[in-house]
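ok so i was messing around last nite and threw this chain in just to see what happens. nothing serious, just curious
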Amino acid sequence: MIVDAHRHYWDPSRLDYAWLADAPAALRRAFLPGDLPANADACILVQAAPDEAETRFLFELAREMPGVIGVVGWVDLESPDVEARLDRLIADGGGLLRGVRPMVQDIPDTNWLASSSLDAAFDLITERGLVFDALVDARHLRALYERLGKHPGLRTVIDHAAKPGIAADGFAEWSGAIARLAQMPDVYCKFSGLLTLTGPSADPRALEPYVAHLFETFGAGRLVWGSDWPVLTTHATYGAWKTCASELVHRHAPTAVDAVFGGNALTLYSAYDASRKPA
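result:
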């Protein structure tokens, strides 16, 4: 079973997605399940707004469409009643909530993740058996390392390989920090969102050293494929990215294709449920 471990749906007519104001014009519209009619892959839906209402919107979609095996949502980790908020989301999801994703890349304080005021919230994520999806880039990797050091056993996945500056030849800045995080056994990495970092040319050849480094540091057992659709559509189609990613995996770990394209996501999110198997 192929699992797209990073898919978004959004509807600006229903909810506020402030970041879309600075996004390419092609993304400033609703993207809903009907926009991928031919796609039969199972998927994890991932939040795109810092709003608990949007997480509940994803729960609605997940119940209406086949193949959704989990939702990564948002909760206010700084709220004094974060425990009650998180438990309400878990209850409202009825088993769909698999992870939590604060939108770290949009928070002005690049050291926010390391703040001691978040300790209790991250303890809750760990205790509830949820995954921490880390939406970070190179600016946040030191703080991320400090945060994860406080929470042994917290299953974490770094979204889009921490967004290395591929178009700006950012390998040196990124490679050491990502390798240090890969030494933590509970940290996974999403093999997603990379084509959009190559600049306007969307040249897959630019990915090669970055992908090689991910396989070298995380190994094929902790890399998780995702589409990052519909953000992906600014540079490629869903099918084109899946083909490109498949070629890269076959080149670097030919015996682990099934793991990267599905098995690792199921292990990470503990998401497989035969009753929700795709049609």
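not much to say yet. The chain is about 35% helix and 15% strand.
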